[in-house]
Amino acid sequence: MDRSQTVSKYGTMGTQEIMKKLIFIIILVVVAVLGFRFGRSSLSPIPLQQEDTRTVNTSYPLPPPPPESEPYVPGTPINAEAGLPILLETPVDGVVVSPPFEVSGRALVDQGQVTIAIIGADNKEVFSRRLSVAAPAGEEYGRFALMIGDLGQVGDLILRVSLSGSDDPEAVQTRRISFAQPDTVEVQLYFSNQQLDPWVDCNKVFSVKRTVSSRSNIFRATLEALLAGPTEDEATYGYVSSLPANVKIKSVGADAAGIVTADFDRNLDRGVGGSCRVGAIRAQIEATLKQFPEVKSVIISVEGEKEDVLQP
């Protein structure tokens, strides 16, 4: 082999080696680039820190900031930290009520009592009652509540609740209320019940609910419902009436002192023997009438006679 052939042979081999090395280097670079990109895509992006920017509303005025403390709304429970000596919770101001309705609230226990009064259109009291304030031991505030029945008033009145004997202006709460006469009113009737009273205490009676008309004298309407006796369902639960059958009401009315006189016909006192039954009749009539807060005592008469009525 001559020299020219030798150079050609080795020259060709050198070129081939160089090309292989270049291809190998290119492959390594491509793999490295692809690996770098794949690695970046698999990592969670790190959020860039941004400036705290605020949007300023220049088109419309912003609403005012909320008040530091909410004003008292009538009807909500008292906040003891308010320091008020008395707070009337119900009824709220301007409400229309139908008898019976509740007056309730809270007051400082050390004051002892509150006076509830209703003032008529002529600025005269048509109702007044003093109540004790009750509270658990250690409590600063105590509760009071009273149900007020029919006062014979219709229209606008003033309800005033005050701490008895206090000169503090904040110790008086007033509400404007309107009396409306409803068509019906729910009342309680009282009967004997041996299932509830197995020891048979003749003077012990138990209440059931009735709905009576309020368009007439509420005392008369309630007594007439009592004379009708228990319903069939009530009788199955043991309620019985000791009042004789066919008793009629002659009249019923109250005086300014809250004394109610209920006058019946002779059937009330006829054929009624035994101290137990007489006591049960009195208990039924008196408990039924005394459910109304304006009634302080009850007198039972027969044909206008008050002496020797319902004697055993």
Summarize this structure as a short list of keywords or feature phrases.
alpha+beta; Immunoglobulin-like; 5-stranded mixed beta sheet; 3-stranded antiparallel beta sheet; 4 helices
Q: In words, what does this structure look like?
A:
It is a single chain. Helix content is 23%, strand content 30%. The protein has helices at 3-42, 218-227, 232-236, 275-290; strands spanning 86-90, 96-97, 101-108, 113-119, 125-132, 141-148, 155-163, 172-179, 184-193, 206-213, 239-240, 249-254, 259-264, 297-302. α2 runs antiparallel to α4. The longest helix is centred in the N-terminal third of the chain and has 40 residues, at 3-42. Mean pLDDT is 79; it is low at 1-10, 43-61 and 66-75.
C-alpha end-to-end distance: 162 Å
Q: What proportion strand?
A: 25-35%
Bin the helical content: 10-25%
Total number of domains: 2
What is the helix tally?
4
The dominant shape is elongated
The whole-angstrom Rg is 45 Å
Strands ordered across the widest β-sheet: 2-8-7-4-5
Q: Got a strand count? A: 14
| H and E order | HEEEEEEEEEEHHEEEHE
Question: Unreliable stretches, pLDDT < 50, 5 or more residues?
Answer: 1-10, 43-61, 66-75
Overall mean pLDDT: 79
Structural class designation: alpha+beta
How does the major sheet shape up? Answer: 5 strands, mixed
